[in-house]
Structures are given as structure tokens and as C-alpha cells.
Amino acid sequence: MTAEEIHAQLAAKFGERIGPLMPPNKDSWALVNKAEDLIEIGQFCKGELGFDCLINLSGVDWPKKNQIEIVYHLYSYSKRHQFVLKVQLDRTAPSLPSLESVWKSADWLEREQYDLLGVEFRGHPDLRRIMMPDDWVGHPLRKDYKEQASWHNIETTRESPLDGFVRLDDLTKRKAAATAAIVPAAEKKEVLQ
Amino acid sequence: MSKHYAQDMGSVVTSRTSFIDDIINLARKSSIFYLLFGLACCGIELMQTGGPRADIDRFGSVPRATPRQSDLMIVAGTLTYKMAERCKLLFDQMAEPKYVISMGSCASCGGLFQAAYSVCKGVDKLIPVDIYVPGCPPRPEALTEGLLRVQDKIVRERWFSDRRMIGQREPGLGVDYQVA
User: Fold this and answer.
1) Is the peptide bond before B97 cis (omega within 30 degrees of 0)?
2) Which of A136, A154, A158 sits opposite B114 (nearest CB)?
3) How high is the ipTM of this complex?
4) Are B46 and B53 in contact (CB under 8 A)?
5) Contacts of A153 in chain B (CB under 8 A)
6) What is the pLDDT of residues A21-43, one digit of tens each?
7) Superfamily the domain A3-144 falls into
């Protein structure tokens, strides 16, 4: 099926709850208007449309729009077609239902988004951090993230040995410039004498 | 065996303790068992160094799979914060005297991933490092050179007369990790 056909089926089933088809090419996507519909739409995609694989689940942080976008990449191995669903969340308290019950692969992918963007997936069986230590502060892939100075007495920065480093070329140029500034002054003195 | 003493002193010194030290150090430097602690691509080079071509078994150095039997920890690869606690724990489990080689730029300073949020900026933030081996990753020859430098360090120690106690080590910068 092409993206248009997939979107037509989705729109026929869910009507207003699915947004319009965005850029109509191979990588086109549709917006899920309400995060609450996700499980229903996910089950329809897996059952009726044959999307047996959730390839990727990623997140995008939009600080100016005060939005966090969660992106679902779906693929069907049986029917060889793909589609992308997006859902937009409030950045201050991003929360949406977990799709772990629909696609098992969502388990770790959702944990990754919880870890790096601080998105809460309601109904996830084991929502823990996956990349950072459990007691880490903050979510590293948020645009306004500031790393803590130390963690468990380990500093998180290292001073660069290149601080104050001068290239040899620059040094010779500086010396040449300094001597050039001195020489005319000396010549002037001679002239005066 | 105590030839270098004769050179230093200008006369033949037959000190019994230094002689025992030499015997002990010869045994110690010729049986450095290293902990298999490959964390990333440096781990592959570490395996190569133990393999038939570089073969650091020539110097009496063989891999061990447990810190309890190891004298040398070769930190080979990118150390993440999540692994940092485990690294410190493994180091604490090793029996004194123990040595650490920081292999590759990632273990030495964070390397390529110095700007990353999840990578520890050098293993010397946690545990005292004896030898830094540069490279990304270092060739097996470079790591062998690092091992020889550790041997030099061992030979210079007066283990019998001036035992290096745990308290005399450079204080660990590391984790406030409590073994329960």
C-alpha cells in the first residue's frame, strides 16, 4: 500500500482524530491529534494494516513551541509498506499512553525517551532510565539541558590541555610584529638625533 | 642482579633486603595477570595483544576473568557513568599490589566523546592510573610497551622493605561507592 492508501484507511476509521497526510512522498506522516487514541490506533495499524514492526520510536524537543513530539516509525514485513505517526505533547508535563502492549519493541524505545527527554509513558511495565544512571539529574536531550557538575564525586568536565595553547606560526608572527613596531621607533630617534 | 646498585653507590652493596626485593620483583614483574576489562573497540586490540602475534604471554602476562586474581587492570575503551561505578568496584576487588593502564584516548580523557553527556571524562577521575597508553585505539605494540612500562615500575619498587600500603596510595578520587 502507498502512504495515501494507508492514510485513507486511517482517516476512514478514525475521521477527525487523525490529522491530514503531510508531505505526500515516501516518508509521509500523519499526526495523531489526541495522545489518548494512540493504543486504539496502534492496534488498528497492527491488526488491519499489517504493521507488524515498530522500527523506531523517537522524540523531538521544540522549546519555542513548548512541545515535545514523539514519532512512531511503523513497518510491515508482510506487506512491505511503511508509515509514520506523530503525536505532539505539552513540554512542561509530557505524558502519553504506552504502546508496549501493542508492539513489544516499544519497551526499551519508550524507556530511552523517558530517560533522554523526560516523557512519561503511562502503563509502561518497567519505566526506568536505560542509558544514564538511575539517580542522574535532568534529561540530556532536552535543548535547555545543563549537565550537573559532578555525579557521585566524579567531575563531569575535564580541563583541556589546549587552553592557552599558541601555535608556533602565530608566535613567530607576533614576534615579527613586535620587532617591526620597535624598529621604526628606533629609526625615528636616529633621525631626530 | 643488584648490578644497578653497584652503579649507583660506586661500590658493591650486598644488602640482604634489596636482594630479596629483586627476587620478589622479578617474580612479580614476570607474572602480571591482567583483568579482561574491554569496554569498547579498544577491547578488540586488547584481545589482539593477548593473541599470537603480539603475544604478551611472552612477558608472563595472561588474562584473568576475575579481579580477585588480577594484578593489572587494563581499562580498554569508553567508560560511561553507568559503568564507572562497576569499574571502581572491580578495582576495589583486586588485591594489592595493583596497577592500572588507561588504554586509549577514551579511557584517558573521554576522547572523542568528551562532549557527551553519558561518558566519564577519563578513568583517572575514579581510580589512580599508572600508565596512559595513547591512541584510538592503540596498536598492540603500544599496549605491549605500556605493559613493559608497568614492569619498569614494578622493578623499581622496594616491595619487601618499603611496602606500599593501601593508605599510602594516592587517594582515590573516585566514587563514594559503598559495598553493601
Assistant:
1) yes
2) A158
3) 0.71
4) no
5) 173-176
6) 887 556 788 888 888 889 999 99
7) NADH:ubiquinone oxidoreductase Nqo5 subunit (3.30.460.80)
